[in-house]
């Protein structure tokens, strides 16, 4: 199937453009969940986290902080440049997480012809991708302007209900701009607030090379224009990271034999935004948490999330049924191309995601980026996922259906990462910030094999 990209450039513009209108119910849930960032300057712990966010971001971008990246740093920089283009329409840029064989088979059927045209495996797969991306992109975009200057589009004030989100926690907009010396509208700053690292950091390492379309490019033309202009696009949360986790987890649910590799690909995609100089570590962590939260509610068929009229997406009333239809199409297409079962073909991987130890080590560092604890009450405890956010388990049961929801939530509880981070305030949204889906998927797969 071929077609004009309804989710390529159009949706990219939607994500970064000014969006007007009142906040939706899902927008409000995400704004409340991401809001702790706006109150960080009120406490010593929060100020320390803000300072570390700036330092860690700069260190990762310039390479002075060495991460266990999946590629040597100079090669990882080139991967970051390729990842700057978002393949909304078919997730093609994320499909290398499927492995050498399955990834090539997927990309042969679902790829971008140019920046405005793409192919898809089937209508069911394209519709599923469209609806999920439209959901998470809307929430991410709402957050950008809300946390920058308490507007819906940079200029239109938010609703009284949304204003109360900040007032209730004594929160302030433009937390990054004011903390890092580039408040909204000042020389070199974002016009609306929350200036990005390439505007606030003392130095940004240049990245020059071919982009996704093999066109000579640099991180400068993807940050400052003309290819992508982020000068007046607020930083928090990261829209690219939101997409990276949304898309990678969708593929993981469709192809659970590659779940751990795909969640690693999501972490790499988000981390590459730091390497590009486009986002802070906190932006990336927020985008990850937002995507996990939204996708869990979609997979749970939460009535607030399904059956909506969203831009650039067909309405889906039963997301679980849509996943099953898409899985059947993807499985048939990839098995036909591979000439064997998905299980066998999934093992054929010689790419950068083929080393499980390296994948786990890299994923682990992106969980917290070693930022200081803000909520000490949660740092030393295990938070019960079933009590706080029972729908989170659908992120596992959708891929491993032999598990019950209670079992899946127990796995997520047992594999939780460190607590007390800047979003882990004890809320149902906050617990998503510490869930470790690499470990959880490994445990879920092992239990499923025993049955």
Write structural notes for this entry.
With 451 residues, this protein is mainly alpha-helical. The chain has one domain (2-351). Helix content is 51%, strand content 3%. It contains 21 helices and 5 strands. Strand 4 and strand 5 form a beta hairpin. Mean pLDDT is 95; it is low at 1-20.
What key attributes describe this structure?
451 residues, mainly alpha, two-stranded antiparallel sheet, 21 helices, 5 strands, disordered N terminus
The CA-CA distance between the termini, in Å, is 38 Å
Helix residue percentage: 40-55%
What oligomeric arrangement do these chains adopt?
A: single chain
Supply the number of helical segments: 21
Count of DSSP strands: 5
Main pleated-sheet profile: 3 strands, antiparallel
Structural domains: how many: 1
Order of helices and strands: EHHHHHEEHHHHEEHHHHHHHHHHHH
Q: Could you list the spans in which at least 5 consecutive residues all have pLDDT below 50?
A: 1-20
Q: State the shape.
A: globular
> Given the helix and strand composition, which structural class is it?
mainly alpha
The averaged pLDDT comes out at 95
Strand order of the largest sheet: 1-3-2
Rg over alpha carbons: 20 Å
Task: Put the structure in a nutshell.
It is built from 21 helices and five strands. The chain is mainly alpha-helical and 451 residues long. It has a three-stranded antiparallel beta sheet with strand order 1-3-2, with no helix packed on it. A two-stranded antiparallel ribbon has the order 4-5.
């Amino acid at each position: 199937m071929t077609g004009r990209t309804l989710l390529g450039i159009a949706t990219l513009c939607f994500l970064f453009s000014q969006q007007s209108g009142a906040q939706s119910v899902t927008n409000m849930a995400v704004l409340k969940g991401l809001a702790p960032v706006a109150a960080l300057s009120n406490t010593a712990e929060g100020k320390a986290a803000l300072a570390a966010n700036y330092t860690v971001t700069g260190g990762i971008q310039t390479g002075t902080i060495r991460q266990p990246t999946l590629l040597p740093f100079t090669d990882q920089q080139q991967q970051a440049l390729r990842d700057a283009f978002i393949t909304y329409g078919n997730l093609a840029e994320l499909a290398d997480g499927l492995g050498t064989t399955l990834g090539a088979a997927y990309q042969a059927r679902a790829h971008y012809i140019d920046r405005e045209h793409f192919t898809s495996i089937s209508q069911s797969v394209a519709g599923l991708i469209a609806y999920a991306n439209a959901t998470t992109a809307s929430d991410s975009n709402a957050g950008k302007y809300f946390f920058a200057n308490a507007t819906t589009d940079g200029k239109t004030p938010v609703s009284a209900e949304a204003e109360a989100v900040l007032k209730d926690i004594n929160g302030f907009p433009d937390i990054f701009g004011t903390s890092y010396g580039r408040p909204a509208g000042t020389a070199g700053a974002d016009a609306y607030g929350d200036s990005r690292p390439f505007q606030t950091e003392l130095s940004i390492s240049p990245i020059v090379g071919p982009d996704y379309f093999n066109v000579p490019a640099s991180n400068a033309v993807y940050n400052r224009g003309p290819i992508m202009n982020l000068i007046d696009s607020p930083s928090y949360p990261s829209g690219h990271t939101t997409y990276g986790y949304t898309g990678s987890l969708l593929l993981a649910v469709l192809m659970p034999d590659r779940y751990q590799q795909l969640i690693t690909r999501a972490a790499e995609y988000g981390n590459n935004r730091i390497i590009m100089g486009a986002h802070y570590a906190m932006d990336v962590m927020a985008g990850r948490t937002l995507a996990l939260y939204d996708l869990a509610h979609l997979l749970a068929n939460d009535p607030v999330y399904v059956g909506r009229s969203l831009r650039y997406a067909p309405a889906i009333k039963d997301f679980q049924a849509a996943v099953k239809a898409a899985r059947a199409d993807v499985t048939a297409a990839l098995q036909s191309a591979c000439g064997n079962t998905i299980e066998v073909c999934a093992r054929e991987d010689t790419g950068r995601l083929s080393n499980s130890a390296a994948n786990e080590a890299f994923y682990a560092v992106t969980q917290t980026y070693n930022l200081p604890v803000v909520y000490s009450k949660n740092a030393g405890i295990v938070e019960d996922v079933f009590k706080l956010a029972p729908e989170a388990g659908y992120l596992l049961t959708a891929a491993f259906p032999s598990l019950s929801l209670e079992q899946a939530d127990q796995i997520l509880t047992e594999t939780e990462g460190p607590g007390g981070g800047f979003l882990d305030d004890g809320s149902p949204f906050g617990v998503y910030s510490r869930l470790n889906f690499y470990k959880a998927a490994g445990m879920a797969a092992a239990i499923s094999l025993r049955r």
